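Sample 3 of the quickstart, ligand dinuclear copper ion:
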Amino acid sequence: MDWKYLPIFPQSASNFSPHVDALYAYLVTVSAFFSILVAVLIVVFAVKYRRKSESEVPVPLNEHGIGNMMLEITWSVIPLLLSLVMFGWGALIFFDESKPPADAMDVWVVGKQWMWKVQHLEGVREINELHVPVNRNIRLTLTSEDVIHDFYVPAFRTKTDVVPGRYTTEWFRPTKVGAYHLFCAEYCGTKHSGMIGTVYVMNPNDYDAWLSNGGTEASMTDEGEALFQQLGCVNCHGPQNNGRAPSLVGLYNSRVELKGGGTAYADTSYIRESIVHPLAQIVNGYEPIMPTFQGLVTEEQIQQLVEYIKSIGPKSPAATGHAPAIENGLAQNPAMSGVAGEPAPGAPKSAAPKAPQKAQQ
Ligand code: CUA
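Result:
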């Protein structure tokens, strides 16, 4: 259904929009049908079964033959089925929105009171704006510097909480070139309502031109590598294992043995946690000697470090199709190609190792 003639609706500009709108139409239709049915029956029955004379005494219920089992079952089962459709349909859309496709293009976002800061892998940064190419799957990895925000683009029919201390993801495939509102959808303080921006969906050529006009910033991977040197991470986590700390080559998307048993899945959240809470999960065979970098690096810098560590890890299926720095095999270590749990490129998503849920502060 095309809602564009109803000015109360935002534009429909992503792969999710038609599905969310169709479900919404179903909810409205079912609700309206039963609301009208009940309202009409109230009036009709009030007239039909009104007390017609002063002396009229209602017939006791059981003499009406009420207690009709078929009737009871019918008006229980039909609403049950109608609401199960709501549940099932909504769950399907929710699962779809929760699972970024493997070929998605990565963009990093930091929310803070009261702005959105965006980093592209190529190094271009923007504030309160997000430029993306049309018809490409886009995966945002989001975090917050302070309180909970929520990244909401109504035209894409998707929103995600942006939570301090962890990474959340949001994905969409913009289907129409244009400029769309970006809102914060979580009350986050005095200027919450001013925490707005614009998402620009561009033709691929325009997008490439925009990217190359974005200045001479180094790519996120290069920035991350420079930080890795500056902060001295390389002294312990160098490519040659020196016994103090594990080498990070091949870490990304692999399974890590932990001290005291158990394993952790080295996704972006694990890497972030290891930087700011290094003692939370100690790799088997090492001492808990790493200092925390909390407060010493900004969330944007952590994202650059994560991108760098991703780039020296096994190639993730999610990285294919984009991220030239990663594609070009920056320090891709052939010795790591057999890392357990690494999904083959192009393998179905279900084959990817499952990330255990880690307790987070
Ligand atoms: Cu950020 Cu509301």
